[in-house]
């Protein structure tokens, strides 16, 4: 979604001052949750590409032609494929336990627990995916390391793309969702016990299974 909107604005197909489709239309078109749509629009607003007015809607910024040349490096995340994302996650997220077991606070674990509870209570795939992503973001926050936080922010951007959503929707069976929920609880328990080796192994096993379920290989 972000990639599409940026390309439409860069090309001029969405011209300065033009109104964007409503959140509901974007959600349906890209099979994304309303929350994901709002985050994408918020990012584009922060980049200066769009403006939002309560009661009127979302519009391409009037000065967008001045903004576009400066944003190419800021949109590189949306060029990353889901397959590339999973390869990178296996390398990066498996390194987080060493910091989490040292620095995580009680508040960090409360946030992880909340993400798990909300993901298990989710009634839609989109809602489950949101809280799944929030849990992994909570892992990054628990490292108390700005590098991991930046990396997970990029991960979130890619997960909000339509391609990721379609892959997840097609691959997430009730049985697999149940397995992911069990894995999430086991990971958090190991981190809470400050067991670096076990938590690293559990995160790696979880990500490998997600990768296999998404792409049918590896």
From TrEMBL:
**Pfam families membership:** FCD, GntR
Q: What PROSITE patterns does the database record attribute to this sequence?
A: HTH_GNTR
Q: What is the name of this protein?
A: FadR family transcriptional regulator
**Has UniProt tagged this entry with the keyword Transcription?**
yes
Keywords from UniProt, A to Z, are: DNA-binding, Transcription, Transcription regulation
Which Gene Ontology molecular function entries are recorded, alphabetically?
DNA binding; DNA-binding transcription factor activity
User: Do you know which InterPro entries this protein is assigned to?
Assistant: GntR_C, TF_FadR/GntR_C, Tscrpt_reg_HTH_GntR, WH-like_DNA-bd_sf, WH_DNA-bd_sf
Task: Please state every residue range assigned to the domain named HTH gntR-type.
Answer: 1-63
The yes or no answer to whether the keyword Transmembrane helix is present is no
